[in-house]
Amino acid sequence: MGRPQEPQKPFFPFGNPFRMISSKGSQLSPKLVALLNAFEETLAGRMTKLNPINKGDVLSLSWMKLAMDSISETYNDVKSLITKLELPACDWDDKWIDVYLDISVKMLDICIAFNSELSRLSQGHLFLKFALHNLDSTSSQQFAKACSLFDGWRKHINTKNPRLNNCWTILDSLVESLDLPKVKNSAKGKLLMRAMYGVKVEIVFVYSVIAAVFSDSAERLVDLNVAETHLWAQAFKDLQSNVNGEIRNASSSGRSVVLKELEAVDATVKRLYPMVQTGVASDHLKVLQNSVTELQTVTEKFSTGLDLVAKEVDGFFDAVLSGRDALLSTLRGDGGKVEPKLAGNLGQIVR
C-alpha cells in the first residue's frame, strides 16, 4: 500500500476511511492487511474493466449489464470478506448494523425503480412487434395499422416513468452515508467499514450513471472524490472521469443521453415511417424491405439487451435481499425467513 497522501478537498465532504484503519488501538495484522489488499485490488480491476475503450459504449445496455454484474460481484465479495474475518453478525456493533440495513434498503429501492423502467421499455417492444407483423404485406390497410402502432410506440417511449423520480433523492442519501461510523478497538470492524465504503462508492457511481441515462439528463450526475490511500482510487478516478465526461459531453453538445440501442430503433422507425405512411411504388419495395429487415434486427437487439440487464438487476436485488435476510436472521437467532414485505422476485414486485 502506497504512502498516504493528503487528499484534495472532495466535492462531497466525506470522512477519510483510511484514518479509521490507522487509528491507535487496533492496527491491522498482516493477515488482515492481506485480506484488505486482495479486496481492494480486485475492486480496482473491476473498475478498470468498467472503463470503456470506446467512451460512447457507456450509453449502451451492454455497459449497463457489465456495471450491474460488477457491483453484484463486489457486494458478494463483501459478504465473503465477512466470513473470512470470522466476524459473525451477532458481534457487530449497532452502528455497523444500522449502516448495512440502511444501505441495503436504499439499494433495493433503486433496483425496483430501474427494473420498472426496463419493464416499461420492454413493453414498448410490443408496438414494434405488431407493426412489423403488419408490414408483412403492402396493403394500405396494413400500412395504416403499422403507422398507428409506430405512433403508439413513440408516445410510450417518450412517457416519463414516475418511479425514476425518487432515484436522485435516494442517491443523495447514499452519498451522505458514505461518511461511515467510527470504529473503536476493532481492527476487523474497521476493515469491514473500509470494504463497505468501496462497494458503496461503486454502487453510487453505477446507479448515478444508469439513472442519468434512463432520465436522459446529465444534470444530477454524482461526482465522488476518493482518498488516494485506496488501492482502487486511481482506477475509480479514471472510470468516473471518462464515463461522466462522456455523458456530459453528449448532453452539452445537444445529443440525447439515451441508450444507443434505443437510438438505433428510433432512427430506423423515423426512416421507415414516411414510406409506410405514404406508400411506396413498386420500384421502391426493395428499399422498404431493407428498412423493415433493419428494424427487425435493431428491435431484437434492443429487446434482448433489456432482458439481460433486467436479469442482472434482478440478480443484484436477490443478492442484497438475501444478505439482509441472513443478517436479520442471525440477529434474531431464529433462522427466520425473508421479511414478508420484501419477499419475492424483483420482477413480481415491479409488476
From TrEMBL:
Organism lineage string: Eukaryota, Viridiplantae, Streptophyta, Embryophyta, Tracheophyta
Source superkingdom: Eukaryota
Topology term for the membrane: Single-pass membrane protein
Organism: Morus notabilis
Record localization: Membrane
Record keywords, A-Z: Membrane, Transmembrane, Transmembrane helix
Pfam families assigned: ROH1-like
Protein family: Belongs to the ROH1 family.
Name of the molecule in the record: Protein BPS1
GO cellular component, one term: membrane
Coarse class of the protein's main subcellular location: membrane
